[in-house]
Fold:
Amino acid sequence: MLRYIVHRSLISLVMVLGVGTVVFFLIHLVPGDVVNVILGGGQASQEQYQKIRQNLGLDKPLYKQYGIWLSKMVQGDLGTSLITERKVGPDILRQVPRTSS
Structure:
């Protein structure tokens, strides 16, 4: 029984990592720029644009962005919402009881 639980846990871990990786790279293929959305579509200065890109880590190469994202996921840090500017993890946990029946 223990062997079965360990096996299923490892499969689940690989699946979550695989799906997360695919989603990470798909997000980078979507047209548009999140910084333009945050700034309201080209109404900001170049300095503001670059500062937000730097704060979000978008000025780094994609493989470094992926490494940072992966290390944060392993630590359980799901990031900060661009809309509410709150941590995403607690917001998700707060909604979990509503989804269970």
